[in-house]
Amino acid sequence: MKTDRRAFTAVLAGMPSLVLAQNTAAARPAPIDLDLVKDWIGKAHQRKIEPMTELLTREPGLIQSSWDWGSGDWESAMQAAAHTGSRDMALFLIDRGARVDLFAATMLGELGLLKTSIETFSGAIHVRGAHGIPLLSHAVAGETPARKIVDFLLARGVDVNARHNNGMTALMIAVQTGQRETVQLLLGKGADAKVKASNGNTALALSLKRGDTAITQALKDAGALD
Predict the structure, then answer these.
(1) Tally of domains in the chain
(2) Is residue 14 part of a domain?
(3) pLDDT of 172-193, one tens digit each?
(4) Do 146 and 177 belong together in one domain?
């Protein structure tokens, strides 16, 4: 059978695409075991760097992995470090090639990065991380190194009472971590001391649990009830 020259040329032209598709399929890595991913994210919450190092040695691909807690609530180890205020964990991950996002930059106190993002894309100030946690709460979780970001966000008019998916607020984060000046600042900006989280906790209940008399009194002065 004689092959038409044009048809033969067309086949040759299509071969690179076919070879590329075959090579891409062949080179595609196997999925990471989901239990391993969940363990990785869980340990990031717990600030356990040594076990994280062991997991990463076992499966390097974990560094960029994320876990879906349901309804699209995706979380990376970096986001876990960011909202738990774990500076050491965030730096550990960055040193190993993890992607830095706005939430980590906020918790770490990198005001320049945050300002550039918000000045370029104004809507970025309202972006939320894993579990619906707003930037203000990440800044509060960062404590002293991120205090300038707390001031910046409040000056930009963010909602001081923005709630996480579980009902927590930036005020509750400040109370949990014993940040007296930040508690006073947030209350002065209109933070509601009477808000209840989904589990029934209030800022006052968290303060009483810590035994911080100064914060407890500040909350009561702001209208919190026993």
Answers:
(1) 2
(2) no
(3) 999 999 999 999 999 999 999 9
(4) no
